[in-house]
Amino acid sequence: MDALQFLVQGLSVALEPLNLFFAFFGCLIGTLVGVLPGIGPISGVALLIPVTATLTSGLPTEQAATSSIILLAGVYYGAMYGGSTTAILINTPGENSSVCTTLDGYQMAKQGRAGAALAVCAIGSFAAGLIACIGLVFMAVPLAEFALKFSPAGQFSLMILGLCALSSLAGKSQIKAFIMTTLGLILSTVGVDPISGVARLTFGYSELYSGIEFLTMAVGMFALGEVFKTILTNDYATGELIKVGKVMPTRQDLKDSAVPILRGSLLGFFQGLIPGCGATLSSFMAYTVEKKLSKNKANFGKGAIEGVAAPEAANNGAAGGAMIPLLTLGIPGTGTTAVLMGALIMFNITPGPLLFQDHPQVAWGLIASMIVGNFMLLILNLPLVKVFAKVIETPPKYLIPGIVAISVFGVYAVQVSVFNLFLMIGSGLAAYYLAKNDYPIAPLVLSLILGPMIENNLRRAMNLYNGDYSMFVRDPISLIFLMIAVLWVAIPAVMKLRGKKVIVEEGV
């Protein structure tokens, strides 16, 4: 009952005119981000952070954080809606989580049923988004209250688990993922030590005394990194666009897709709760399950509507589920939620168990806005699907200068530092060469965000236990987290050694 009362309070925040506009703007931009191949939700969210910081600069801190996170979350789940459009119309997924949608979605489009496939995607995404929001409403507070009982050792081990979970399934090589995690932790120590006052890894540059700014790194690595990739490899989707045709699905389409949507939503939501199991893994799992359960297995790969409905519902369910560990435990389970966490920290709002006590306006305003946003996306995507389809034809010569301009002016407007502009360009070039050689970027950025919190909890634990490191294994909760972290790393490694295929979150 308390949860419903909090939700009503959250709705009063989400329905304020400014927040309604920000939710709509975020959903619209997110859909466009999903539609445009090569710009995933991470890049879209990173690119919009300086824009939101500028738009909310005159507001009180809590209000600015609420409005900003509403907009950025709208970009996140809006991109999940839009990612299916290119997958169906040109056989090129707008993002990795839409790869499964190409298998049957493109075949439906070739049969003249592109409109029905896109409509089922929108309906499935809407249903999954609502189910995830309901789960978030009823699970968030109990989980946050449970997390408040963690000791500093438990909190430290939980963050180690979060790092291991994302790193073990990011990219094709675990070793490269852990190299990036370590590099991110090293970069997080740059700056003046808050306790001893000693400058660490600053090399005499006063600009680094306050540490490496998350905003600069996120925009550089995710937004400019994609720009450099597009320019240097000419990597831009140019497939032939299939006409959308009649949009509304038939009654039989709705009947055939209803159960797969429900199964995919629940599967995606519960997988999203597990750090590291992002939307891509969920959509693959949902497709596999649906194929095994179907009475018409032979139709899969030839235009089965169940093969479109289930993975699209799963990736949206996973996006909503991933918000729970972020908001309640302060552990981002995906690259995009890591960037969202960094954005909240920029506004001095730390996600975690205390978020619902200290900043209920931010937490419940965001949850309520996700419900409102899902209705907006359904209304946007069904009648305007033909308009969004036209966006695919946007040539890169217009798109790339726009991204560069937003990146440069956005970062300068917030940081007012030429040094940070050079750092942003350098990190963008580094991201291109790292990604080209299969070094995943998300673990580095996640480590950069979690590094100061890990260091803080380690120091608190050491002070509390008089430097006794054995407390990390004597504390039951800490021990459980450490054991899960070890298993999380070991199981995929053992599976690879035994020749088993491990699905990873590529592109994070």
UniProtKB/TrEMBL annotation:
**Superkingdom assignment:** Bacteria
Entry keywords, A to Z: Membrane, Transmembrane, Transmembrane helix
The family database entries (InterPro entries) matched by this protein are listed as: DUF112_TM (IPR002823)
All copies of the DUF112 domain together span 20-446
> Lipid metabolism as a keyword?
no
Sequence intervals crossing the membrane: 20-49, 116-141, 153-170, 177-196, 208-228, 326-350, 362-382, 403-433, 439-456, 477-495
Matches recorded under Pfam families: TctA
Q: Work out whether the entry's keyword set contains Transmembrane helix.
A: yes
Q: What is this protein called?
A: Transporter
Q: Which organism is it from?
A: Anaerosporomusa subterranea
| Highest classification ranks of the organism | Bacteria, Bacillati, Bacillota, Negativicutes, Acetonemataceae
